[in-house]
Amino acid sequence: MWDYTDKVQEHFLHPRNVGELPGANAVGEVGSLACGDALKLFLKISPDGIIEDASFQTFGCASAIASSSALTELIKGKSVEEASKITNKDIAAYLGGLPKEKMHCSVMGEEALEAAIRNWKGLPPREQEEEGRLVCKCFGVTDTQIRKAIRENGLTTVDEVTNFTKAGGACGDCREQIQDILDEERGAAKSFTEIKPVTRPMSNIQRMQNVMRVLDEDIRPRLAQDGGDIELVDMEGTKVVVAMRGACSSCRASQLTIKDLVEKTLREQVDPAINVVEA
Amino acid sequence: MSDIVKGDSVIYLDNNATTRVAPEVVEVMLPLFSELYGNASSMHTFGGQMSHFVNEARANVAGLLGARPEEIVFTSCGTESDSTAVFSAVETQPEKKHFITTRVEHPAVIALGNLLEKRGYDVTWLGVDSRGRLDLDELARSIRKDTALVSIMYANNETGTVFPVDDIARIVKERGALLHVDAVQAVGKEPIDLSRTPIDFLALSGHKLHAPKGVGVLYVRKGTRFRPFLRGGHQERGRRAGTENVPYIVGLGKACELAGSAMAQERTQVAALRDKLERGLLAAIPNAIVNGDVEHRLPNTSSIAFESVEGEAILLMLNEFGICASSGSACTSGSLEPSHVLRAMGVPFTYAHGSIRFSLSRYTTEAEIDKVLEVMPGVIKTLREISPFTRRG
Question: What residues does CATH 3.40.640.10 cover in chain B?
Answer without folding.
Answer: 23-259
